[in-house]
Specification:
about 350 residues; UDP N-Acetylglucosamine Acyltransferase, domain 1; Udp-n-acetylmuramoylalanyl-d-glutamate--2,6- Diaminopimelate Ligase, Chain: A, domain 1; 38 strands; ten-stranded parallel beta sheet; single chain; alpha/beta
Length: about 350
């Protein structure tokens, strides 16, 4: 693509040669002839002398001076990702492997089905979708158009997955939730007969687990992105455009509303609610029933960031306070002797 075409694609303002050919995206330090890279902030200016890119994306109204053509955009990183999708498109697979197992009662229009894939009865898989090697798709499952189930995934019965979703390798969608009732001398399983609904444009990272609802549904909202090794328990409701980082564990019946950001290794107690726009920092702990409102939160138990910082400052001052108390005791002891 020429720089003029790229500027049109990202709706940016081009400064410099319109006809420079761009064939790849690259990191700022690694870019060379034919590459495009980006600068998010003026802090990267110091590195410009070592940059050999053929074009740079820079912030709007920026005073950054470049020796190559530049394109001013509102969000350089977002524009960079848009260009990357155009220059490095996802490699689509096609064809059905001879080892697959598909019953007659299922309606499967997938573009690709890999080796040793097994599909249950009354399952519908839309056009352009891909089911990769070794995956199991259960009975009464619906998978929309252009969704990708990567190798060795398990999609249990009665699960719905929307359009343009990506389920990465090793993920399990629709397993029983961890629900047991204690009697006098044993635990028995509470019914786990609900479902999982994953809306359009959701991505689920490798080795993540999303449990079915006990009696209702577990729902993942449109545009939500879930990292690797995330556990979503039964009857959880996650809203739209939520981002959840790795190793987070979400207990049953938790509600996370739209546009939240959840850091890595966050633990959620059951029946808590995270309201729209909340940001929860890594390794935080949200107690059962807690309501987390909009804003930035951190710590265990989770608290507003300003309170967390204040508490940390107090904790860090404890060694000094201990020494002061020790000194005071010595002075008091000496005064008592006198």
């Amino acid at each position: 693509m020429k720089t003029k075409e790229i500027a049109d694609l990202v709706k940016g303002e081009l400064v410099g040669d319109e006809d420079v050919e761009i064939s790849r995206v690259a990191a700022l330090e690694d870019a060379s002839n034919g590459d495009i890279s980006f600068i998010e902030a003026a802090g990267a200016i110091d590195r410009l002398e070592q940059v050999s890119a053929s074009c740079l994306l820079i912030p709007q109204n920026s005073e950054i001076k470049t020796t190559c053509p530049s394109i001013q955009v509102k969000n350089p990183k977002y524009a960079f990702a848009t260009i990357a999708a155009e220059l490095h498109p996802f490699r689509k697979s096609s064809g059905w492997h001879e080892t697959i197992s598909i019953p007659d009662k299922s309606d499967v229009r997938a573009r690709f089905i890999g080796a040793f894939v097994s599909i249950g009865e009354n399952t519908n898989i839309g056009e352009g979708s891909e089911i990769h090697d070794g995956s199991r798709v259960g009975r009464n499952v619906t998978i929309g158009n252009s969704s990708i189930v990567n190798p060795n995934c398990v999609i249990y019965d009665n699960v719905t997955i929307g359009n343009n979703c990506v389920i990465h390798s090793g993920s399990v969608i629709g397993a029983d939730g961890f629900g047991f009732v204690r009697g006098e001398d044993e635990y028995i399983k509470f019914p786990q007969i609900g479902t999982v609904v994953i809306e359009d444009n959701v991505e689920v990272g490798a080795n993540s687990c999303i449990d079915r609802g006990a009696l209702g549904e577990t729902r993942i909202g449109e545009g939500t992105k879930i990292d690797n090794l995330v556990q979503v328990a039964h009857n959880v409701t996650i809203g739209k455009r939520v981002v959840i980082a790795s190793q987070t564990g979400i207990s049953g019946s938790v509600t996370i509303e739209d546009d939240c950001v959840i850091g890595g290794q966050v633990g959620f107690g059951d029946h808590c609610t995270v309201e729209s726009g909340a940001v929860i920092g890594s390794q935080a702990g949200v107690l059962p029933g807690k309501i987390v409102r909009e804003g930035v939160w951190w710590g265990t138990p989770v608290k507003p960031l300003r309170d967390y910082k204040r508490l940390n400052a107090h904790i860090n001052s404890l060694p000094r306070l201990k020494q002061e108390i020790k000194t005071l005791r010595q002075l008091i002891s000496e005064l008592e002797k006198e």
